[in-house]
């Protein structure tokens, strides 16, 4: 039997794609609103990258039995997306930062996949994360193309 995600995660996770899609579509559809939409998209992408890192701090602060030794790796993974997102925000122009954020989201999911193979990340979370990360990365890349 597959583990199930809590209902809030199944609802709020996909709902988190709405700002990504909205800002990307606005950037594509309206030259007048494009700068504001791209600013919103890059800011939201950076916030989400930081949020993804915070998940690992939560896992490290309350480890499952036998996972106490993973604290350094988890907290390191928790810090890296936020630092990389901060760098993306500092890049000149929107395009480099948006592309960097797309890479950050997918790279974090890849690292989490490796952690899941060691039993450190719940499988239902990982399935959700891949769908959300690919959707968010696609929106960030659409914004970069605008």
From TrEMBL:
<feature type="transmembrane region" description="Helical">
    <location>
        <begin position="98"/>
        <end position="116"/>
    </location>
</feature>
<feature type="transmembrane region" description="Helical">
    <location>
        <begin position="12"/>
        <end position="29"/>
    </location>
</feature>
<dbReference type="InterPro" id="IPR021836">
    <property type="entry name" value="DUF3429"/>
</dbReference>
<dbReference type="Pfam" id="PF11911">
    <property type="entry name" value="DUF3429"/>
</dbReference>
<keyword id="KW-0812">Transmembrane</keyword>
<feature type="transmembrane region" description="Helical">
    <location>
        <begin position="71"/>
        <end position="91"/>
    </location>
</feature>
<keyword id="KW-1133">Transmembrane helix</keyword>
<feature type="transmembrane region" description="Helical">
    <location>
        <begin position="128"/>
        <end position="145"/>
    </location>
</feature>
<keyword id="KW-0472">Membrane</keyword>
<protein>
    <submittedName>
        <fullName>DUF3429 domain-containing protein</fullName>
    </submittedName>
</protein>
<feature type="transmembrane region" description="Helical">
    <location>
        <begin position="41"/>
        <end position="59"/>
    </location>
</feature>
């Amino acid at each position: 039997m597959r583990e199930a995600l809590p209902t809030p995660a199944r609802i709020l996770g996909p709902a988190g794609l709405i700002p990504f899609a909205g800002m990307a579509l606005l950037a594509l559809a309206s030259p007048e609103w494009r700068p504001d939409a791209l600013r919103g998209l890059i800011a939201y992408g950076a916030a989400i990258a930081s949020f993804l890192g915070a998940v690992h701090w939560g896992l490290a602060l309350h480890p499952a039995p036998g996972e106490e030794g993973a604290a350094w790796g988890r907290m390191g993974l928790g810090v890296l997306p936020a630092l990389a997102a901060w760098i993306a925000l500092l890049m000149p122009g929107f395009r480099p930062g948006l592309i960097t954020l797309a890479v950050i989201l997918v790279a974090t999911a890849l690292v989490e996949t490796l952690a899941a193979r060691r039993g450190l990340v719940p499988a239902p979370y990982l399935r959700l994360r891949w769908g959300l990360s690919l959707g968010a990365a696609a929106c960030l890349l659409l914004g970069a193309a605008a």
